[in-house]
Design a protein that fits this description.
It is a single chain. The protein is mainly alpha-helical. The protein has two domains: 1-124, no CATH class; 135-204, Orthogonal Bundle (Arc Repressor Mutant, subunit A). 61% of the residues lie in helices and 6% in strands. The chain is built from eight helices and three strands; from the N terminus they run ββααααβαααα. It has helices spanning 29-55, 60-80, 82-86, 91-104, 136-146, 150-160, 165-172, 176-203, and strands at residues 2-6, 13-16, 116-118. The chain has a three-stranded mixed sheet, covered by helices on one side. Strand 1 and strand 2 form a beta hairpin. Helix 6 packs across helix 7 (165-172) and helix 7 packs across helix 8. The protein is globular and about 60 Å long.
């Protein structure tokens, strides 16, 4: 199965070969719904997942590779183990966790993704901006996030993407209170970093 991203318009839409294994049998309605859900997830979350992995320390190419591998794994579940995909509590959180796990996996243990995700020339990651053209302010924020301790950084990355402490706790395998503590610590560190940056600006 090949997923390609075209640039026919301003939106990024995946094109997927939906040929079923048994071409003579119409797809089950539930499986068809799962496929539609996968497409929606891909379209809505692809660039956000790339950004999420970048916040956690990856460069752009590493983040793209990890994101592609995560969506490939999701597609395999939809195709081969649909009951497992149906049991995923929150696909948005799941895809981020898998992408981050892939990025952190030692290079010699990374598997080549069985699905190829190709990106069009207008691919973007940060709200319409290429990472090479980020504003100085955005780069400061990204660098500050990357300097956070690993657990704090991951919690903040989930928080930035709109996840609640209870959702963050479920993905990190910690209690709700521990997730809140991680977010609190992250906010304090970032606030101190902001104060330092502002002080440097006044001294110039």
């Amino acid at each position: 199965m090949v997923v390609s991203m075209t640039s026919d318009d301003s939106s990024v839409r995946p094109s997927v070969d939906w040929t079923p294994r048994d071409a003579g049998r119409p797809p089950d309605a539930t499986l068809a719904a799962m496929r539609a859900g996968f497409l929606a997830l891909f379209e809505d979350e692809y660039h956000k997942v790339v950004r999420f992995v970048m916040v956690n320390g990856a460069d752009r190419e590493q983040a793209l590779d990890a994101t592609q591998a995560a969506f490939a794994e999701a597609w395999l579940l939809v195709q081969r183990r649909p009951e497992q995909w149906e049991a995923v509590r929150d696909p948005r959180a799941w895809i981020r966790t898998i992408a981050l796990r892939t990025y952190r996996r030692p290079p010699d243990r990374r598997r080549e993704p069985p699905t190829v995700l190709r990106s069009g020339p207008d691919e973007t990651v940060w709200s319409g901006q290429d990472p090479g053209e980020l504003t100085a302010q955005t780069l400061h924020v990204l660098q500050a996030l990357r300097r956070l301790p690993e657990g704090v950084r991951t919690a903040m990355a989930f928080h930035i993407d709109g996840f609640r402490p209870v959702d963050i706790a479920a993905e990190l395998g910690v209690t709700d209170q521990q997730a809140r503590d991680l977010l609190k610590k992250g906010r304090k560190i970032l606030a101190r970093e902001a104060d330092v940056i502002m002080a440097k600006g006044r001294d110039r």
